TrEMBL record:
SUPFAM superfamilies (UniProt xref): RmlC-like cupins
Catalysed transformations (reactions): 5-dehydro-4-deoxy-D-glucuronate = 3-deoxy-D-glycero-2,5-hexodiulosonate
Coiled-coil regions, chain positions: none
Function: Catalyzes the isomerization of 5-dehydro-4-deoxy-D-glucuronate to 3-deoxy-D-glycero-2,5-hexodiulosonate.
Protein name according to UniProt: 4-deoxy-L-threo-5-hexosulose-uronate ketol-isomerase
Pathway: Glycan metabolism; pectin degradation; 2-dehydro-3-deoxy-D-gluconate from pectin: step 4/5
EC numbers, comma separated: 5.3.1.17
Biological process annotations from GO: D-galacturonate catabolic process; D-glucuronate catabolic process; pectin catabolic process
Originating species: Enemella dayhoffiae
Length: 277
């Protein structure tokens, strides 16, 4: 790694959660300052060994670094990566010399075995990586190809569109599942009714949130919830036993990404609203 030490977050058991105060919760689950001009910043979560990263090329060409913690020559020697352009500009992502152009909310799946990955363009990129045990083709997925699904209802302030890019019916992966959820104007709630998925961990990255607004993100076992308050471009780790849902003080968009036993988006346990505590 270059100028920034890798931020490592250890796995947490559900019975630890009630012991945490706000600072503890944030230190363990919330990732801030992932995006810095001219840098690639990474965070390694032991929840299914997901690595997340913020990339802001800002006129430079940045290379995906290989943290010492991976004990690998190349980042993708044993990993797959999903990259999404969360900014307005065009990105150029190069994989062993093959260039892919990504516009706003387009995704690139990067195969295990790729040696050199670089990022350029005047935009902001977010990446999520999971360990991979086989190679699947590097492929770009556009927003139209992401099979938009409309969910919720403006009357419940949860009207939103789910774009699924990497999953078992989209870009193929070993364990990564990744997409973007866009809230409709006037809707503030995501993922309510909430769910857990015992077979996968998940990380949310909230973006397109005005700087003076926040998302109240709910986490914890359904019957023992806690909250953390997140700003624009903050990420939050969700262990397999935790709900993950949020309500904004303004509209926002978020990237969700998971890894674990399977790549079936629908494999989750819905939690009735009335069961939450
Ligand atoms: O497991 C799936 C993820 O939590 C999200 O896709 C849920 C979501 O985007 C939503 O309901 O708004
Ligand atoms: Zn989920």
């Amino acid at each position: 790694m270059t100028d920034h030490d890798l931020d490592v977050r250890h796995a947490i058991a559900p019975d630890q959660l009630p012991l945490f105060d706000t600072t503890d919760l944030r230190d363990r689950f919330v990732v801030t300052d992932l995006f810095a001009d001219g840098e690639v910043r990474l965070c390694y979560s032991m929840a299914d060994r997901l690595v997340i990263g913020g990339v802001v090329p800002g006129g430079k060409t940045l290379e995906l670094p290989v943290p010492d913690e991976l004990r690998a020559e190349n980042f993708c020697d044993r990993r797959e990566v999903g990259v999404v352009n969360i900014g307005e500009g065009e990105a150029t992502v190069s994989c062993d010399g093959e260039e892919f152009k990504l516009t706003n909310q387009e995704v690139l799946y990067i195969s295990r075995g790729t040696r050199k990955v670089t990022f350029a363009g005047d935009t902001r990129l977010y990446l999520v990586s999971a360990p991979a045990h086989a190679e699947h083709p590097t492929v770009k997925v556009t927003k139209d190809e992401a099979a938009p699904v409309a969910l919720g209802d403006i009357k419940n302030s949860n009207e939103r569109t789910i774009y699924k890019y990497i999953h078992d019916e989209g870009a193929k992966s070993c364990q990564l599942v990744m997409g973007v959820t866009v809230l409709a104007e006037g809707s503030m709630w995501n993922t309510m009714p909430a769910h857990v998925h015992a077979r996968r961990s998940e990380i949310y990255l909230y973006f397109n949130l005005p700087e003076d607004h926040r998302v109240v993100h709910l986490m914890g076992e359904p019957e023992e919830t806690r909250h953390v308050i997140l700003a624009n471009e903050d990420a939050v780790i969700s262990p397999p036993w935790s709900i993950h849902a949020g309500m904004g003080t303004a509209a926002y968009t978020f990237v969700w990404a998971m890894a674990g036993e399977n790549t079936d988006y629908a494999d989750c346990e819905q939690q009735p609203i009335t069961s939450l505590r």
